[in-house]
Amino acid sequence: MQTWLAKAQALVMSHAKRFRWPLVGGAVLLLAVSIGLFWYVIAGGLRSTPAVANGPDEEKREVVVGDLVPRYLDGVFVPAGEEAYAPRAVIVENHPDARPVSGLAAASLVIEAPVEGGITRFLAFYDATTTLDEVGPVRSARPYYVEWARGWNASLFHVGGSPEALDLIKSLDGFVDVNEFAYGASFWRDRRRAAPHNTYTDKERMDAVLERKNATTTRAVEAWHFIDAASSTDRGDVDSISVPYGGSFSVSWAYDRVRGVYVRSQAGRPQLDRDGLPIESENVIVIKTEEQVLDEVGRLRIRTTGSGEAVAYRDGKKFILRWSRAPGKPVKFEAGDGSEFLFTRGRTWIHVTTHDAIFGGFEG
Question: Which of 121, 209, 215, 309 could bridge across to 288 with cysteines, CB 3.0–4.6 Å?
Fold first, then answer.
């Protein structure tokens, strides 16, 4: 306001000098202009339009921090130019003979879903810059893992696959597929383990094969939006999650309120990677869908498109959601009022369930 008044006063004085007005007349005019400008400011004439207040979640969302920007895959801040690298997806098995597995602790996103025989298998997504000494054991593809990988525009690393999965891969234009049967040098066999639980890959081999396939310029999909973790005083008290897949595949998560992460246990004990790192996540989601048995082996078709029920856990709190997915797109999550669910920056674990007996405990 003082700046505007000073400019007005200077303007009046210049006119007074130019036209040689009497001193009293100039003073009166100067006083009148000053009073007018004062009331104009008080009335809001010079105020800028106020910003619309954001909701509590929106207030925590950040777009840029210095020279860093949020990575599309997990919202973690990275140097500009590294946010949209296409992820690498690896199918990792969960058979008891394959435990402990390698590389899950380093994954930005893991989707766990049932396969034949009542066991589960993981689709682990990694950013292109993540250091990976070993990931595995790598196992065969199923069509629903292919569909999820495609939704994130990820390259897919696997060892063979079901007939339906392999047919689907062949039909997808531009899909970056790395099958051990075609790219054996991109994997290795660990002699300390018996086949088929002994196939691994790593970042160096991933980089090499994607360079050879001219797939290093592929961009990631911005599937979700992220917010900063809740402060220690704003964290909830929902401190345990149980996913009863059955037998040694049943999972539980314990919320560490001090660090703001969920710590995974499987078969009643904390789950560690082969290198001893615990498996943790900032976000845990359970979704409900349907399955269909395809053949006498028991292979499944799992519905990955359309929509369904979901429950999310973040910052020690529980959220009742809906999931949805269009063909070729990533899974989306929204609240009952249609608003987008915002993830805490960091890792996300999605449990896929196909039985009411498993999902029923999450609805309350």
Answer: 309
Q: Is 315 left (phi over 0), alpha (psi -120 to 50) or beta?
A: left
Q: What are phi and psi of 194, to 5 degrees?
A: -85, 145
The band of 296, judged by pLDDT with boundaries at 50, 70 and 90, is confident
Instruction: Select from 51, 75, 50 the least CA-distant residue to 61.
Output: 75
Category of 159 on φ-ψ map: left (φ > 0), alpha (ψ -120 to 50) or beta? beta
What is the rounded distance in angstroms from the CA atom of residue 11 to the CA atom of residue 178? Answer: 74
Q: In this predicted structure, what is the pLDDT of residue 64?
A: 57
3-state secondary structure of 92: strand
* 261 and 282 inside one domain: yes
Which CATH number fits the domain that encloses residue 231?
3.50.90.10
Q: What pLDDT, in 10s, does the model give residues 38-68?
A: 333 333 333 332 222 233 444 444 455 678 9
Segments forming the whole domain that contains residue 176: 68-213
